[in-house]
Write a structure and sequence with these properties.
- This protein has about 140 residues and is mostly helical.
- Helices cover about 55% and strands about 5% of the residues.
- α2 packs antiparallel against α3 and α2 packs antiparallel against α5.
- The longest helix has about 35 residues.
- About 5% of the residues have low confidence.
Length: about 140
């Protein structure tokens, strides 16, 4: 009987990928805390994961890279439409919407969630390894 990796791993591999993307976005917010007119952004993890799980065939149109040094990073076309602007509790005089303490708390929670997803994925692989060995 063939093992389907998608069925065996569940949503944990997608969750791990999305949590790493969110870490990039939150780190970008923190690093731009002193940049005038910078608008903090975030990824709605739940809605993006649900969208990923519903259909991978309906991915956003991907841009072509005209130079080998172009990188997607945070602005990867598949995720840029899912980024939302954060509304600050107290507006900054210079137009920056980053609240460092809030961003750090979100980053820390996301890191903990990443570790949990990684732990789930690790246990799935251990279970598959045990099943393959017939132990």
């Amino acid at each position: 009987m063939a093992i389907s990796m998608d069925r065996a791993l569940g949503l944990h591999d997608d969750a791990l990928l999305l949590r790493s993307r969110r870490a990039e976005v939150l780190a970008n917010n923190i690093s731009n805390a002193d940049t005038p007119n910078f608008k903090a952004r975030d990824l709605d993890f739940r809605s993006v994961l649900e969208e990923q799980l519903q259909s991978t065939a309906q991915r956003p149109l991907e841009l072509s890279r005209t130079d080998g040094q172009h990188i997607y990073g945070i602005s990867e076309p598949a995720y840029i439409s899912d980024l939302m602007y954060r509304i600050p509790r107290q507006a900054s005089v210079d137009g920056n919407t980053v609240e460092v303490q809030e961003e750090m708390a979100r980053y820390t929670k996301n890191a903990m969630d990443y570790q949990a997803s990684f732990g789930f994925l690790d246990r799935k692989f251990k279970g598959l390894n045990t099943a393959i060995k017939g132990e």
